[in-house]
Amino acid sequence: MAESKPTLGYWKIRGLAQPIRFLLTYLDVDVNEKRYGTFEEWQADKLNLGLAFPNVPYLIDGDLKLTESRAILRHFARDTALNPNTADATRTCDMLENVLWDIWFGLLRYCNSGVDPMKSYFENEIPKKIGYLNTFMENKKFILGDQISYVDFILYEILYHYTTYSAEYLDKYSVLSQYKKSFEAIPAIAKYISSEDYIKGPCINPMAKIPF
Ligand SMILES: N[C@@H](CCC(=O)N[C@@H](CS)C(=O)NCC(=O)O)C(=O)O
User: How do residues 124-145 score in pLDDT, each as one tens digit?
Assistant: First the structure.
């Protein structure tokens, strides 16, 4: 019998899949998760799943085979209230998605390498970007104001990554600290966080130079 639920494949870590996991929970979409524990396990599947661009995370839903974390996130958000519904809101989401990716990868690249130029970018440039973000989020419940969008799921995960890297990291950014708490209090998110299925960590590949 054909598999009826979609399959989301990724490592047994939070990583790039975590915003997707939160968004699926929020939308109450049921998927099977294939969580790879070893490199060998993933290598055995990698070229045998019919993926045009073999990678994790991947989504397989019948004939639909999709990779790229943001493409998967947008796929699930499309036609839901998490998708921006005006041209202005779409532009804001596009801008924030890109800004957030720089902020996220500033941390990921530094922790994966532990050395310059990633280290100096992380130390010198990232605080400025997080400062701009903190200012941008002032007096907003979500990135678009009162309306939650798919980009909020990326923002939350980045804040989780930064505070797992260093518990005090957000202390200077009170708006972002408050945003993180409010997101965790959304009923569907709070329920997921306390469920057995939820991955508290690690956030990144345990083989990284600075794992967390
Ligand atoms: N641009 C891709 C990057 C995906 C990626 O870098 N995946 C990493 C984990 S975060 C991986 O281990 N890929 C497995 C591989 O390259 O075989 C995305 O956003 O999904």
Answer: 999 999 999 999 999 999 999 9
Residues 6+ apart with CB under 8 A from 56: 9, 10, 11, 16, 17, 36, 42, 67
What fold characterizes domain 87-186? Glutathione S-transferase Yfyf (Class Pi); Chain A, domain 2 (1.20.1050)
- Confidence class for position 37, pLDDT limits 50, 70, 90: very high
The ligand 1 site (C-beta within 6 Å) comprises 15-16, 46, 55-57, 68-69
Q: Tens digits of per-residue pLDDT, 191-202? A: 999 999 999 999
The CATH number fitting domain 7-80, selected from 3.40.50.300, 1.20.1050.130, 3.80.30.20, 3.40.50.720: 1.20.1050.130
d(C-alpha 183, C-alpha 101), whole Å:
19
Whether pLDDT at 1 is above 80: no
Say how many Å lie between the CA of residue 212 and the centre of ligand 1: 18
Mutate to test the pocket of ligand 1, among 8, 10, 16 (most ligand atoms within 8 A of CB): 16
